[in-house]
Specification:
- Helices cover about 75% and strands about 0% of the residues.
- The protein starts with a helix and ends in a 7-residue tail after the last helix.
- The protein is mostly helical.
- The chain has a single domain, classed as Na+/H+ antiporter like fold (Up-down Bundle).
Length: about 325
Protein backbone atom coordinates (compact mmCIF):
# COMPACT_ATOMS: atom_id res chain seq x y z
CA UNK A 1 0.00 0.00 0.00
CA UNK A 2 1.36 3.43 -0.97
CA UNK A 3 2.25 5.42 2.16
CA UNK A 4 3.98 8.71 3.02
CA UNK A 5 7.16 6.72 3.69
CA UNK A 6 6.92 5.15 0.22
CA UNK A 7 6.48 8.63 -1.27
CA UNK A 8 9.55 9.89 0.58
CA UNK A 9 11.62 6.94 -0.63
CA UNK A 10 10.36 7.48 -4.20
CA UNK A 11 11.56 11.10 -4.37
CA UNK A 12 14.61 10.78 -2.11
CA UNK A 13 17.07 9.86 -4.92
CA UNK A 14 16.49 13.26 -6.54
CA UNK A 15 17.34 15.12 -3.34
CA UNK A 16 20.37 12.90 -2.72
CA UNK A 17 21.69 13.93 -6.14
CA UNK A 18 21.00 17.62 -5.40
CA UNK A 19 22.86 17.36 -2.10
CA UNK A 20 25.62 15.40 -3.83
CA UNK A 21 26.06 18.19 -6.37
CA UNK A 22 26.23 20.77 -3.57
CA UNK A 23 28.86 18.69 -1.74
CA UNK A 24 30.91 18.27 -4.94
CA UNK A 25 30.84 22.04 -5.45
CA UNK A 26 31.74 22.72 -1.84
CA UNK A 27 34.71 20.34 -2.02
CA UNK A 28 35.66 21.77 -5.45
CA UNK A 29 35.46 18.41 -7.16
CA UNK A 30 32.81 19.96 -9.46
CA UNK A 31 34.15 23.41 -10.28
CA UNK A 32 32.17 26.29 -11.76
CA UNK A 33 34.23 26.25 -14.92
CA UNK A 34 33.02 22.68 -15.53
CA UNK A 35 29.34 23.67 -15.58
CA UNK A 36 29.11 25.25 -19.03
CA UNK A 37 30.73 22.32 -20.83
CA UNK A 38 28.72 19.71 -18.95
CA UNK A 39 25.40 21.50 -19.48
CA UNK A 40 26.18 22.03 -23.17
CA UNK A 41 26.67 18.28 -23.64
CA UNK A 42 23.52 17.56 -21.61
CA UNK A 43 21.29 19.95 -23.59
CA UNK A 44 22.78 19.28 -27.01
CA UNK A 45 23.28 15.49 -26.87
CA UNK A 46 22.27 13.60 -23.75
CA UNK A 47 18.85 15.15 -23.04
CA UNK A 48 17.65 14.92 -26.68
CA UNK A 49 18.70 11.26 -26.67
CA UNK A 50 16.81 10.64 -23.43
CA UNK A 51 13.70 12.33 -24.85
CA UNK A 52 13.83 10.25 -28.03
CA UNK A 53 14.36 7.05 -26.07
CA UNK A 54 11.29 7.71 -23.90
CA UNK A 55 9.15 9.08 -26.75
CA UNK A 56 9.58 6.28 -29.27
CA UNK A 57 6.91 3.64 -28.76
CA UNK A 58 4.82 5.71 -26.32
CA UNK A 59 1.22 4.86 -27.23
CA UNK A 60 -0.19 7.84 -25.32
CA UNK A 61 1.48 10.17 -27.85
CA UNK A 62 -0.62 8.78 -30.71
CA UNK A 63 -3.66 10.68 -29.42
CA UNK A 64 -3.70 14.27 -30.78
CA UNK A 65 -6.21 15.41 -28.14
CA UNK A 66 -3.88 14.31 -25.34
CA UNK A 67 -0.95 16.11 -26.97
CA UNK A 68 -2.88 19.37 -27.29
CA UNK A 69 -4.20 19.09 -23.75
CA UNK A 70 -0.74 18.34 -22.38
CA UNK A 71 0.93 21.36 -23.98
CA UNK A 72 -2.09 23.57 -23.27
CA UNK A 73 -2.16 22.70 -19.57
CA UNK A 74 1.60 23.28 -19.35
CA UNK A 75 1.07 26.79 -20.70
CA UNK A 76 -2.05 27.46 -18.60
CA UNK A 77 -0.62 26.58 -15.20
CA UNK A 78 2.46 28.77 -15.69
CA UNK A 79 0.11 31.70 -16.38
CA UNK A 80 -2.02 30.80 -13.36
CA UNK A 81 1.11 30.50 -11.19
CA UNK A 82 2.50 33.84 -12.35
CA UNK A 83 -0.85 35.55 -11.72
CA UNK A 84 -1.07 34.04 -8.25
CA UNK A 85 2.51 35.09 -7.51
CA UNK A 86 1.82 38.64 -8.68
CA UNK A 87 -1.23 38.87 -6.40
CA UNK A 88 0.67 37.57 -3.37
CA UNK A 89 3.60 39.86 -4.22
CA UNK A 90 1.26 42.84 -4.00
CA UNK A 91 -0.13 41.60 -0.70
CA UNK A 92 3.34 41.47 0.87
CA UNK A 93 4.14 44.96 -0.38
CA UNK A 94 6.28 44.34 -3.47
CA UNK A 95 6.04 46.84 -6.31
CA UNK A 96 7.62 47.33 -9.75
CA UNK A 97 11.27 48.05 -9.07
CA UNK A 98 11.32 46.16 -5.77
CA UNK A 99 10.93 42.66 -7.17
CA UNK A 100 7.24 41.98 -7.79
CA UNK A 101 7.79 40.84 -11.39
CA UNK A 102 10.63 38.53 -10.38
CA UNK A 103 8.58 37.23 -7.46
CA UNK A 104 5.62 36.51 -9.73
CA UNK A 105 7.71 34.65 -12.29
CA UNK A 106 9.84 32.87 -9.70
CA UNK A 107 6.87 31.53 -7.76
CA UNK A 108 4.84 30.86 -10.91
CA UNK A 109 7.38 28.54 -12.57
CA UNK A 110 7.79 25.09 -11.06
CA UNK A 111 10.79 22.89 -11.77
CA UNK A 112 9.40 21.15 -14.84
CA UNK A 113 12.40 19.17 -16.07
CA UNK A 114 15.44 18.00 -14.18
CA UNK A 115 13.78 17.40 -10.81
CA UNK A 116 10.39 16.43 -12.19
CA UNK A 117 11.36 13.82 -14.79
CA UNK A 118 13.01 11.31 -12.42
CA UNK A 119 10.04 11.54 -10.02
CA UNK A 120 7.55 11.02 -12.84
CA UNK A 121 9.50 8.00 -14.11
CA UNK A 122 9.82 6.44 -10.65
CA UNK A 123 6.11 6.85 -9.92
CA UNK A 124 4.44 6.36 -13.30
CA UNK A 125 6.88 4.97 -15.88
CA UNK A 126 7.99 5.94 -19.37
CA UNK A 127 4.60 6.80 -20.93
CA UNK A 128 4.04 9.60 -18.42
CA UNK A 129 7.62 10.82 -18.97
CA UNK A 130 7.04 10.96 -22.74
CA UNK A 131 3.91 13.05 -22.24
CA UNK A 132 5.72 15.28 -19.72
CA UNK A 133 8.04 16.44 -22.50
CA UNK A 134 5.02 17.49 -24.56
CA UNK A 135 3.59 19.28 -21.52
CA UNK A 136 6.93 21.07 -21.15
CA UNK A 137 6.63 22.61 -24.62
CA UNK A 138 3.66 24.57 -23.29
CA UNK A 139 5.67 25.52 -20.22
CA UNK A 140 8.59 26.76 -22.34
CA UNK A 141 6.29 28.83 -24.55
CA UNK A 142 4.70 30.45 -21.49
CA UNK A 143 8.05 31.25 -19.88
CA UNK A 144 9.69 32.67 -23.00
CA UNK A 145 6.64 34.70 -24.04
CA UNK A 146 4.55 35.86 -21.08
CA UNK A 147 7.42 35.44 -18.63
CA UNK A 148 9.86 37.49 -20.69
CA UNK A 149 7.27 40.21 -21.38
CA UNK A 150 6.50 40.44 -17.66
CA UNK A 151 10.15 40.61 -16.65
CA UNK A 152 11.26 43.05 -19.34
CA UNK A 153 8.12 45.16 -19.58
CA UNK A 154 8.36 44.92 -23.36
CA UNK A 155 6.38 43.08 -26.04
CA UNK A 156 9.29 41.39 -27.81
CA UNK A 157 9.46 37.60 -27.50
CA UNK A 158 12.79 35.76 -28.03
CA UNK A 159 11.29 32.91 -30.05
CA UNK A 160 14.77 31.66 -30.97
CA UNK A 161 15.07 30.40 -27.38
CA UNK A 162 12.46 27.78 -28.22
CA UNK A 163 14.64 26.31 -30.95
CA UNK A 164 16.75 24.05 -28.77
CA UNK A 165 17.83 20.42 -28.59
CA UNK A 166 15.10 19.13 -26.23
CA UNK A 167 12.19 20.68 -28.14
CA UNK A 168 13.61 19.53 -31.48
CA UNK A 169 13.92 16.01 -30.01
CA UNK A 170 10.28 16.12 -28.86
CA UNK A 171 9.12 17.20 -32.32
CA UNK A 172 11.18 14.50 -34.04
CA UNK A 173 9.85 11.89 -31.62
CA UNK A 174 6.24 12.98 -32.14
CA UNK A 175 6.70 12.89 -35.92
CA UNK A 176 8.08 9.34 -35.82
CA UNK A 177 5.30 8.23 -33.46
CA UNK A 178 2.53 9.83 -35.53
CA UNK A 179 3.88 8.20 -38.70
CA UNK A 180 4.08 4.88 -36.81
CA UNK A 181 7.67 4.32 -37.82
CA UNK A 182 9.08 4.75 -34.31
CA UNK A 183 9.29 0.97 -33.95
CA UNK A 184 11.87 0.94 -36.76
CA UNK A 185 14.46 2.61 -34.53
CA UNK A 186 15.91 -0.54 -33.00
CA UNK A 187 19.14 -2.45 -32.53
CA UNK A 188 22.51 -0.77 -31.91
CA UNK A 189 21.20 2.70 -32.83
CA UNK A 190 18.43 2.56 -30.21
CA UNK A 191 20.84 1.12 -27.66
CA UNK A 192 23.32 3.93 -28.29
CA UNK A 193 20.53 6.54 -27.93
CA UNK A 194 19.50 4.96 -24.64
CA UNK A 195 23.08 4.81 -23.34
CA UNK A 196 23.68 8.47 -24.16
CA UNK A 197 20.41 9.59 -22.61
CA UNK A 198 20.48 7.64 -19.37
CA UNK A 199 23.03 9.89 -17.68
CA UNK A 200 21.40 13.21 -18.57
CA UNK A 201 19.30 13.68 -15.46
CA UNK A 202 21.73 12.50 -12.76
CA UNK A 203 24.33 14.91 -14.15
CA UNK A 204 21.86 17.77 -14.58
CA UNK A 205 20.46 17.33 -11.07
CA UNK A 206 23.96 17.41 -9.58
CA UNK A 207 24.69 20.60 -11.52
CA UNK A 208 21.45 22.01 -10.09
CA UNK A 209 22.66 21.19 -6.58
CA UNK A 210 26.02 22.79 -7.33
CA UNK A 211 24.28 25.91 -8.68
CA UNK A 212 22.12 26.18 -5.56
CA UNK A 213 25.30 25.95 -3.46
CA UNK A 214 26.74 28.85 -5.51
CA UNK A 215 23.63 30.92 -4.78
CA UNK A 216 23.63 30.35 -1.02
CA UNK A 217 24.71 33.51 0.74
CA UNK A 218 24.66 35.72 -2.38
CA UNK A 219 21.61 37.63 -1.17
CA UNK A 220 20.56 38.66 2.34
CA UNK A 221 17.44 36.55 2.97
CA UNK A 222 14.06 38.19 3.31
CA UNK A 223 11.83 35.87 5.33
CA UNK A 224 8.80 37.72 3.99
CA UNK A 225 9.73 36.75 0.44
CA UNK A 226 10.76 33.18 1.33
CA UNK A 227 7.64 32.41 3.36
CA UNK A 228 5.32 33.99 0.76
CA UNK A 229 7.09 32.08 -2.02
CA UNK A 230 6.64 28.78 -0.20
CA UNK A 231 2.96 29.53 0.39
CA UNK A 232 2.44 30.21 -3.33
CA UNK A 233 4.63 27.49 -4.83
CA UNK A 234 4.16 24.68 -2.31
CA UNK A 235 0.63 25.22 -0.98
CA UNK A 236 -1.67 27.43 -3.09
CA UNK A 237 -0.42 26.37 -6.54
CA UNK A 238 -0.51 22.64 -5.71
CA UNK A 239 -4.10 22.95 -4.47
CA UNK A 240 -5.21 24.67 -7.70
CA UNK A 241 -3.38 22.23 -9.98
CA UNK A 242 -4.60 19.11 -8.17
CA UNK A 243 -8.20 20.35 -8.10
CA UNK A 244 -8.05 20.99 -11.85
CA UNK A 245 -6.53 17.52 -12.40
CA UNK A 246 -9.46 16.07 -10.48
CA UNK A 247 -12.35 17.89 -12.11
CA UNK A 248 -11.16 18.69 -15.66
CA UNK A 249 -11.55 15.63 -17.92
CA UNK A 250 -8.11 14.47 -19.05
CA UNK A 251 -5.99 11.38 -19.65
CA UNK A 252 -4.67 9.57 -16.58
CA UNK A 253 -1.11 10.28 -17.71
CA UNK A 254 -1.87 14.01 -17.58
CA UNK A 255 -3.21 13.68 -14.05
CA UNK A 256 -0.01 11.90 -13.09
CA UNK A 257 2.12 14.63 -14.62
CA UNK A 258 0.16 17.47 -13.04
CA UNK A 259 0.40 15.90 -9.60
CA UNK A 260 4.19 15.81 -9.79
CA UNK A 261 4.30 19.33 -11.24
CA UNK A 262 2.12 20.53 -8.36
CA UNK A 263 4.67 19.24 -5.84
CA UNK A 264 7.77 20.74 -7.48
CA UNK A 265 9.80 23.63 -6.03
CA UNK A 266 10.58 26.74 -8.06
CA UNK A 267 12.57 26.48 -11.29
CA UNK A 268 16.01 28.00 -11.84
CA UNK A 269 15.14 29.69 -15.13
CA UNK A 270 13.63 32.86 -13.54
CA UNK A 271 17.09 33.64 -12.15
CA UNK A 272 18.40 33.70 -15.73
CA UNK A 273 15.46 35.79 -16.94
CA UNK A 274 15.92 38.27 -14.09
CA UNK A 275 19.56 38.70 -15.08
CA UNK A 276 18.80 39.03 -18.79
CA UNK A 277 15.78 41.33 -18.60
CA UNK A 278 16.36 43.70 -15.72
CA UNK A 279 14.63 41.84 -12.89
CA UNK A 280 15.85 41.18 -9.35
CA UNK A 281 18.01 38.03 -9.44
CA UNK A 282 18.38 38.08 -5.67
CA UNK A 283 14.64 37.64 -5.22
CA UNK A 284 14.63 34.68 -7.61
CA UNK A 285 17.60 33.14 -5.77
CA UNK A 286 15.75 33.29 -2.43
CA UNK A 287 12.67 31.70 -4.00
CA UNK A 288 14.66 28.82 -5.50
CA UNK A 289 16.63 28.06 -2.33
CA UNK A 290 13.65 28.49 0.00
CA UNK A 291 11.19 26.37 -1.98
CA UNK A 292 13.79 23.67 -2.74
CA UNK A 293 14.66 23.22 0.94
CA UNK A 294 11.03 23.24 2.10
CA UNK A 295 9.95 20.90 -0.72
CA UNK A 296 12.08 18.15 0.83
CA UNK A 297 9.34 17.98 3.47
CA UNK A 298 6.26 18.96 1.46
CA UNK A 299 6.79 17.07 -1.81
CA UNK A 300 6.27 13.52 -0.48
CA UNK A 301 3.03 14.49 1.26
CA UNK A 302 1.66 16.39 -1.74
CA UNK A 303 2.37 13.27 -3.80
CA UNK A 304 0.86 10.94 -1.22
CA UNK A 305 -2.38 12.84 -0.60
CA UNK A 306 -2.63 13.79 -4.28
CA UNK A 307 -2.52 10.12 -5.27
CA UNK A 308 -5.35 9.36 -2.84
CA UNK A 309 -7.43 12.36 -3.96
CA UNK A 310 -6.96 11.65 -7.68
CA UNK A 311 -7.31 7.88 -7.17
CA UNK A 312 -4.09 7.11 -9.01
CA UNK A 313 -2.00 3.95 -8.81
CA UNK A 314 1.77 4.46 -8.78
CA UNK A 315 4.28 1.86 -9.94
CA UNK A 316 6.03 2.06 -6.59
CA UNK A 317 4.25 -0.39 -4.24
Amino acid sequence: MFSPTTAILAVLPVYILIIGGAVLRRTRVLKREHDAGIMHVIFSVMLPCFILDRTLGAEVLRNPQVLISGAGLGFLFIIVGISLGYLVGKIIGLKPGTGIRTFALGTGCQNYAFTAVPVVEILWGTSAVALLFVHNIGVEIAIWSVGVMLMSGENGIPWKRLINGPIIAVLIGLTLVSLRIDDKITGPIRTAISMLGIGAFPLAIMITGATIMDLVGTEKPSWKIIIAACLVRLFAAPAIIILCAKYIPMAVELQQILLVQAAMPAALVPILLARLYGGRPGVAVQIVIGTTVVSIFTLPYIIFYGIKFLELTPLTP
